[in-house]
Structure formats: C-alpha cells, structure tokens
Specification:
It is a single chain. This protein has about 130 residues and is mainly alpha-helical. About 70% of the residues lie in helices and about 0% in strands. It is found in: Endosome membrane; Golgi apparatus membrane. Pfam families: Vps55. One of its GO terms (biological process) is late endosome to vacuole transport via multivesicular body sorting pathway. Its main location: membrane.
Length: about 130
C-alpha cells in the first residue's frame, strides 16, 4: 500500500514538472520549443547510477570509486540541465519567463527522480533493477 501511494505521488509530481516544461515551451507568448532539449538530460540522468550499481559489488559498505564517479557524472548532468535554459535565455533564444518555467520543471523532475531512487532503490521485496 505504501509503494502504491509513493508511486502515485511520484507520478503526480512528474506530471507537474512536465507541465512546467510544456508551459515554458507552448504558451503563445513564448512559442519556442528549444527548452524541450532538457528531456535528454532527464533520460540520461539515472544512467551513471545504473552502470555503477551493475559494476560495483555491494559487499562493502564503504563508498567505491565507481559509485563516486557516477555521482560526479550525475551532478554534471543535473547542473547542465539547469544551465541549458539559462544559456538559451542569455543568448535570447528563449524569453526569461520560459527559462523560469523550465527551471521550475527541472527542480520538480529531478526531485521526482531522486524520490524514485529513495523509494524504490532500497532493494527489498520490490526492486527497479528488474525493469
């Protein structure tokens, strides 16, 4: 029951984040779809964690170099996702209002991804590794 409630909450927050992103692109005042390229960052964000989880052995409780490298790459991806709309707004490819909506969507989506790993990444009876 708890997992179902967590899944519903994560789905709802993901929908809110994507709504912010779509509003930053599709409102008639903004009307430019360049910010949709942050979707690429959403998809590649968990990849370093998946690779590190598969490669590193879970026998030691200490942090491994592979896991630390995965954290480093994930941090770079997240920072790039926040920097991309700011750069687009700075070169006037998009308006600053659209940049704000995309940044709000980024915050919600990345918190949703973090929540997914906190809820389903423990590896008890249900595991996302099966997917």
């Amino acid at each position: 029951l708890v997992l179902v409630a967590a899944l519903v909450a994560l789905s709802f927050s993901g929908a809110i984040g994507l709504t912010f992103l779509m509003l930053g692109c599709a409102l008639e005042y903004y009307g430019v779809y360049w910010p949709l390229f942050v979707l690429i960052f959403y998809f590649i964000c968990p990849i370093p964690h998946f690779i590190a989880k598969r490669v590193s052995d879970d026998s030691d409780a200490a942090s491994s170099a592979c896991r630390e490298l995965a954290y480093f790459f994930t941090t770079g991806i997240v920072v790039s996702a926040f920097g991309f709309p700011i750069i687009l707004a700075r070169v006037e490819a998009i308006k600053w209002g659209a940049c704000g909506l995309v940044l709000a969507g980024n915050a919600v989506i990345f918190l949703t991804i973090l929540g997914f790993f906190l809820v389903f990444g423990r590896g008890d009876d249900f595991s996302w590794e099966q997917w």
